[in-house]
Amino acid sequence: MLRLANKLWRYIKYLTVAKRVWRWPRQSDVLIFDACGQEILLEYLQPWNPEVLHVRNEFINVPVLLASIFRGGSKLDAYIDCFIERVHPKLVVTFTDNNSTFYTISQRHSSVKTMFIQNGIRGYYDDVFETLDAASIEAHDSMTVDYILPFGNIIGDEFARYIKGKVIPMGSLTNNHLPKTHIKEAHVIAFVSQWRKNGFFMNGMFYSHKSFYRQADQPIIQFLVQYAHENNKRLKIIPYCHKNSSGRAAEEVYFRELAGDDISFLNPTGAYPSYQAVDIAGVVVGVDSTLVYEAIARGTKAAIFPIRSSLLGIKSYAYGWPGEYVDDGPFWTNHPNPENFKRIMDHLFEINDEQWHAELAEHSFDKVMTYDSSNGILKSILKKELGSMPNS
Predict the structure, then answer these.
(1) 342 by DSSP, 3-state: which?
(2) What's the sign of the alpha-carbon dihedral 274, 278, 284, 290?
(3) Is the dihedral angle over the CA atoms 42, 46, 48, 50 positive or is it negative?
(4) 230 FRET partner, CA 20 to 30 A, in 48, 49, 206, 238?
(5) Cα 255 to chain center, whole Å?
């Protein structure tokens, strides 16, 4: 009874919070599933004037909702099915790779092609894999897409364990899209912030802000402050929050508590300032942020210190998961050991760009994250499934 009441409450809340749309969705050859990330998707899909299916309580299409009410099964599936039937797309695409609902669409709409594009580094407990692993054999068999577009072969193979589909590694959509900045400040060490205001639940456990964020950031930041001072470098933070956002002041306070009042922040202008920041830095440092992997794919020297894997005992936070990598490599370490940090930083400042690229090739970094300049792979798939761009 309690479970039914909670389900009813969520449904009422959804109907209350969501803005209502009173017209039927447009017909289009392309449907974007989930508006999250649609800005970068539209850079490639706009010529087909795609329709958008909102799944985060932003909007609810009233005609579609009414048409779906009397269908059996899941109400969410019924709503999605009615929406798809009305739009009549050739292709449904999402930038939300950790929504398992998307992977059931193909079984119910065999004439529609589906494609997901990975949008972030994935672990086990915090993302889709735990959900898929817990599914029954019957549910697993229903997880199907036409195209799996992951960062690299390693994570692509992990997706393929749970989801049927063609794996085509393409790297990061946003990273591939943005041109590289060639102005370097070789003396700058840029730390990638993953700051969030609060803790969260994961795998049935609550991780406080202190245990998840500060516990990993503190030993790294304290080391970098000392390293920068001793080696005539300048430590700067690539902030998570935009300069004018509401959380920025709290994020700055957090890092000043860790590093002291003279800490500074990289604030390039533009729509994607974090990518400009990693291009400017001599060496980028991060815990397990997607951005530090993207920086390496862009050609920037970077140190990855995914020490949460050992601090929290979560293997999937280790470097290159689910690949089999040693804990301590030439540009990564899974352990909070200042001696390892120093070894890696000294190494990155000593080698030149040619040696750096050779090292990445030696350790097959492109299997972790590849780089496809201007997203030629995506463009070729769109051309195959949708034909030439309208009016081209």
Answers:
(1) helix
(2) positive
(3) positive
(4) 238
(5) 23
Stated pTM of the model: 0.91
Vertex 231: Cα angle to 225 and 232 (nearest 5)? 90
**DSSP-H helix ranges across the chain:** 2-17, 38-45, 62-68, 75-87, 105-108, 128-133, 137-141, 153-162, 173-177, 209, 215-230, 248-259, 273-280, 290-297, 308-311, 338-350, 353-362, 376-386
The pLDDT score that the predictor gives to residue 18 is 81
Taking 50 as the pLDDT cut, the residues of the chain under it are: 1-3, 5, 136-137
Give me the domains of the chain, ranges plus CATH numbers: 2-171+374-386 (3.40.50), 178-370 (3.40.50.2000)
How many Å from the N-terminal Cα to the C-terminal Cα in the chain? 57
pLDDT of the residue at 97: 87
Total Cβ atoms within 10 A of residue 171:
25
